[in-house]
Design goal:
The structure holds two protein chains of two kinds. Chain A folds into three domains: 58 residues, no CATH class; 242 residues, MetI-like fold, CATH 1.10.3720.10; 68 residues, no CATH class. Chain A is 65% helix and 6% strand. Chain A contains twelve helices and eight strands. In chain A, the strands form three sheets. A four-stranded antiparallel sheet of chain A has the order 1-2-3-8. The longest helix of chain A has 34 residues. Chain B is of the alpha/beta class. In chain B, a hairpin with a 5-residue loop joins strand 2 and strand 3. The chains are: A alpha+beta, B alpha/beta. Chains A and B meet through helix 2, helix 5, helix 11 and helix 12 of A and helix 1, helix 4, helix 5, helix 6 and strand 10 of B.
Chain lengths: 402, 346
C-alpha cells in the first residue's frame, strides 16, 4: 500500500482515495502478480516434467546416473584428437568427440570468415561481373540445405580422388587417394625442443619488430618492410637451429601397406568435406554481414579517406573495415554459433563428432536422458563461451568509436 | 533434422512417458484404439521395407501382422512407424509404439538396462563382412589395418571392436548415421570392407553399382539373435507377441499353411478321435488357449490365415527364391537342424 501511494500513476493521479485501490486495479501490482503466476506455472511445469521423468525411469527400472561413462566403449574412431583405444571408457570417447567437434568447427569458422570477407567485398565491387559472381554464390549457397551441401562435398571429394593403388604422390613423401591425404609426420629427437624454442622466440622477435616498425612509422612516417622481414625471421631462425643441431627432427614418412598407407599424418576426406562444406556455406551468410557492415559506413568516410590521398586498398583496410566491424560483430557471433551447432551433421558424412559418438553410446547403454543432457550441456557451454569472447571483442571494437 | 528427432525423443521421454505410465495395459490400448502401432526399420530389404506396391513387407512386418491378426483379428490394422537405430528403443520406452519388430539384437544389457523385454527370436543372424573382390581377400583375418564402413548406433560397431581386439586387426572404422551413406562410401572405395549382419549384407550387395565385384567373407563374427521387443512389466503383452511367433513355428511343424488351415480345422474337428490334439488346442477347437493370452480362441487360426507358417514367411521375404536369397541355416526348425523351436501348445 505504501508503495502504491508514492507513485503518481496509481490512485493518486485520480485525486482521491489512496488506500482503497484494489490490487487488481493497481497496474504495478497486477503486473507483479501476473509475473508471479507465470513463474509459478513454469516451475510447476518443469517440476511435473522432472517428477514424471523420474517416476517413469523408476517404473521401467532404468537407472539414472553418469556411472556408465566409466564403462568400456569398445568401439574405435576414424579420427581422434587424443589417442583412444578399444579399451577407452565412454567418457574419454565423449571428450574426444567434443574436441573433434571443436577442431572441425574452428577450421570451418576460419574458412567462413576469410571467404565470407572476400565474397562480401566482391559483392560490393563496381565491376559488374565480380559482383554478380559473388551474388550468385551467396544465393545458391543460402538456398540449398546444408546437409545436401555436405553430402555433395563429400560425394564430390570421394568421386574425384583415386583408389589407393593409383594414389597421387608428390616426391614419394605426400600421397593422396580416396582414403585421405597422407603426409610425413615430424618425430622429435633430442634437441628438437630447442628448435621449438627457437620457433617461439622467432615469433616473439617478429612481434617486437612489428611493434617497433609501427612506432617508428607513427613517429617519423618512415615505413618498414615488416612482412618479408618477419617472414624471414620466423622461417629462418628455427631452420638455422634445426641445421645447427644436426637435424634433430626425424620424419615419419607414410609407407604403402596392405590396405592403407601407414605412418605419417592422415587428413581424412570426411574431415575435409565437413570443414570445407560448413566453411563455404557459412561464408555466404558472413558475406552478407560484411556487405551490410560496409554499407553502413557512410560514403563520406570513403570520400574523405580518398581525399586524404589514401590508396583505395588502404582506405578499405584503415578506414572502412574498422568502422564496419562495429556493425558486423553481433551478427557474426550468431554465425560462429551456427558453425558449432551445424557441425552436428558430421555423422551423415562419417566424421566422428560428439553428436555421432553420443548416438552410439546412447544406443549401447540405453542412457538416453543422460546422453541428451550431456549434449545440451556441451553445446550450450560452447555457445556461451563463444558469446562471451565475441562480446568482449565487440566491446573492444566499440571503444574505437568516434 | 536429426537433432529435432532427437529432441523429440527426449521430450517424449520426459512428457510422453506420462501417457505410458498411466495408461491401461498395452492389450487394452491396442484393442480400444483398433490398430497396432509397430516400430519397424526405415528400410531393410526382406525384413521391413515398402515393396513395389508401396506396402510394407518383410519378415518383421509379418510379425506385426501376426500380432495384429491375433489381437484384432485383422492383419491390416497395423500402423508402421519407421525408426532409426538410435530412435527405436526410446520410441518403445515412451509408448510411441506397442511393439518393436526392427531386426534388433537381443543382448543382456539391452534386456536389462532399457526397461524393455526381448520376447523371442524371429531371425538368428550374425555379423559378416563384404569386401571388394579386387583386394583378393578371402578371410576376415586378412583385413589387418583395413578401413571398414559401418552404420553407427548399432551392435555392429561393438562386435567389430571385439573381433578387432581378439585378433589384433587394427580396423579403421568410418561410421555413418545412415546405412545408405555407409554403403555408398564403401561402393566408391572409401572403405575396403563393409560390415553388418549377414542377412543385411546379402540385401545390401544387390544395391551396389556392380554386385558381382564384391564378395561376402565366410566369417560370422557375432551372434545376432534378432527379435521383437516389448516394454518391461507388461507380461501379458509380452506373452502375446512371443506366442504370435511361436504359433507360426508350431504351424510349420504341423504342416499347417495359409492355404490349408481351413482344411486342417475341418479335419481336426473336436469329435474326431484321430485328430492331432495340439492342433486342436492351438486352433481353438478344444480347450481355451486363447483366454490365457487374453485373446479369442481363434488367435492362432487368424495368424496362420493372415501370414502363414514361419517357413512360408521366411520363403516369401528372404528365402532362396527372393532377391535376398538366404538359406534357412540356423533358422530352420529344430527338427531340421536349425534353432527355431517353439514350446508346446498345451
Amino acid at each position: 500500500m505504501a508503495m502504491a501511494q508514492g507513485t503518481p500513476e496509481n490512485g493518486v493521479a485520480n485525486g482521491h482515495s489512496h488506500h482503497h485501490v484494489a490490487f487488481w486495479r493497481d497496474e504495478r501490482k497486477r503486473g507483479l502478480a501476473a509475473q508471479l503466476v507465470v513463474i509459478l506455472a513454469i516451475l510447476a511445469f518443469g517440476w511435473y516434467l522432472i517428477a514424471n521423468l523420474l517416476a517413469n525411469q523408476e517404473r521401467l527400472g532404468i537407472p539414472l546416473g553418469l556411472d556408465f561413462l566409466e564403462n568400456v566403449a569398445g568401439f574405435q574412431l576414424s579420427f581422434a584428437v587424443l589417442p583412444v583405444t578399444l579399451e577407452s571408457p565412454i567418457g574419454r570417447l565423449l571428450v574426444v568427440g567434443g574436441l573433434n567437434t571443436l577442431v572441425a568447427a574452428f577450421f570451418s569458422a576460419i574458412i567462413a570468415t576469410f571467404v565470407g570477407l572476400l565474397i562480401g567485398i566482391m559483392r560490393l565491387s563496381h565491376n559488374w561481373l565480380i559482383s554478380r559472381i559473388a551474388a550468385t554464390y551467396i544465393e545458391i549457397i543460402r538456398n540449398i540445405p546444408l546437409l545436401l551441401q555436405l553430402v555433395f562435398w563429400y560425394g564430390g571429394v570421394l568421386v574425384t580422388l583415386p583408389r589407393p593403388r593409383d594414389s597421387l604422390s608428390a616426391f614419394d613423401l605426400v600421397y593422396l587417394n580416396i582414403k585421405g591425404l597422407f603426409m610425413p609426420r615430424p618425430v622429435p629427437e633430442p634437441g628438437a625442443g630447442i628448435v621449438l624454442i627457437a620457433f617461439v622466440a622467432a615469433i616473439g622477435i617478429a612481434i617486437g619488430v612489428a611493434r617497433w616498425a609501427r612506432q617508428r612509422q607513427m613517429a617519423t612516417g618512415q615505413q618498414f618492410a615488416t612482412v618479408p622481414v618477419n617472414f624471414a625471421i620466423v622461417i629462418g631462425l628455427p631452420t638455422f637451429a634445426y641445421l645447427l643441431l644436426g637435424r634433430p627432427i626425424a620424419w615419419d614418412v607414410p609407407q604403402p601397406g596392405a590396405f592403407n598407407f601407414t605412418g605419417g599424418v592422415t587428413i581424412l576426406p570426411e574431415m575435409t568435406a565437413l570443414i570445407i562444406g560448413l566453411g563455404l556455406s557459412t561464408a555466404a551468410y558472413v558475406a552478407e554481414i560484411v556487405r551490410s557492415g560496409i554499407n553502413s559506413v557512410s560514403h563520406g568516410q570513403t570520400e574523405a579517406a580518398l581525399a586524404l590521398g589514401l590508396k583505395p586498398r588502404w582506405c578499405m583496410r584503415l578506414v572502412i573495415l574498422p568502422q564496419a566491424l562495429r556493425v558486423m560483430i553481433p551478427p557474426m557471433i550468431s554465425q560462429y554459433l551456427n558453425v558449432v551447432k551445424n557441425s552436428t551433421l558430421a555423422g551423415f558424412i562419417g566424421y566422428p563428432d560428439l553428436f555421432s559418438i553420443i548416438g552410439t553410446s546412447q544406443n549401447q547403454t540405453g542412457r538416453a536422458v543422460e546422453c541428451v543432457m550431456i549434449l545440451m550441456l556441451f553445446y550450450l557451454s560452447v555457445s556461451l563461451i563463444i558469446s562471451v569472447i565475441m562480446n568482449w571483442y565487440n566491446k573492444r571494437v566499440m571503444l574505437v568509436e568516434r | 533434422m536429426k537433432q529435432v528427432k532427437y529432441v523429440v525423443a527426449g521430450v517424449a521421454l520426459l512428457a510422453g512417458m506420462a501417457t505410458a505410465a498411466q495408461a491401461a495395459s498395452t492389450l487394452e490400448t491396442v484393442k480400444s484404439r483398433g490398430n497396432l502401432v509397430c516400430g519397424v526399420t526405415t528400410g531393410l530389404a526382406g525384413f521391413g521395407a515398402p515393396n513395389d506396391k508401396g506396402e510394407w513387407a518383410g519378415l518383421d512386418i509379418d510379425l506385426c501382422k501376426a500380432v495384429a491378426a491375433a489381437v484384432l483379428g485383422d492383419a491390416t490394422k497395423v500402423e508402421y512407424k519407421p525408426l532409426s537405430a538410435e530412435q527405436r528403443f526410446t520410441a518403445l520406452q515412451s509408448g510411441e509404439v506397442d511393439v518393436l519388430a526392427r531386426n534388433s539384437t537381443w543382448t543382456l544389457s539391452r534386456d536389462t538396462q532399457l526397461g524393455l523385454d526381448f520376447v523371442q527370436v524371429n531371425y538368428y543372424d550374425g555379423q559378416g563382412f563384404m569386401v571388394h573382390k579386387e583386394l583378393g581377400v578371402t578371410s576376415a583375418l586378412e583385413l589387418k589395418g583395413a578401413t571398414v564402413c559401418v552404420q553407427e548406433g548399432t551392435t555392429t560397431e561393438k562386435n567389430m571392436g571385439d573381433y578387432d581386439k581378439a585378433n589384433g586387426l587394427g580396423f579403421q572404422p568410418v561410421k555413418f548415421k545412415e546405412n545408405d551413406q555407409a554403403r555408398a562410401a564403401y561402393d566408391e572405395g572409401r572403405c575396403d570392407a563393409y560390415t553388418t549382419d549377414a542377412s543385411g549384407l546379402a540385401g545390401e550387395r544387390t544395391a551396389l553399382k556392380d554386385p558381382a565385384s564384391h564378395i561376402i567373407l565366410p566369417e560370422i563374427i557375432s551372434k545376432e539373435p534378432l527379435g521383437p521387443v516389448v516394454r518391461h512389466g507388461d507380461n501379458q503383452w509380452g506373452d502375446i507377441v512371443r506366442w504370435a511367433h511361436n504359433a507360426t513355428l508350431v504351424a510349420e511343424e504341423k504342416g499347417i499353411t495359409q492355404a490349408n488351415v481351413d482344411e486342417v480345422v475341418a479335419a481336426n474337428a473336436a469329435d474326431n478321435t484321430a485328430a492331432d490334439a495340439e492342433i486342436q488346442r492351438m486352433l481353438g477347437i478344444t480347450d481355451k488357449m486363447g483366454e490365457g493370452l487374453g485373446l479369442g480362441n481363434d488367435w492362432a487360426y487368424n495368424i496362420i490365415k493372415a501370414v502363414g507358417n514361419y517357413g512360408e514367411i521366411f520363403d516369401r521375404n528372404v528365402g532362396p527364391a527372393t532377391p535376398i536369397g538366404l538359406e534357412r541355416g540356423l533358422n530352420a526348425l529344430w527338427t531340421k537342424g536349425g534353432l527355431q523351436y517353439a514350446p508346446p501348445v498345451r
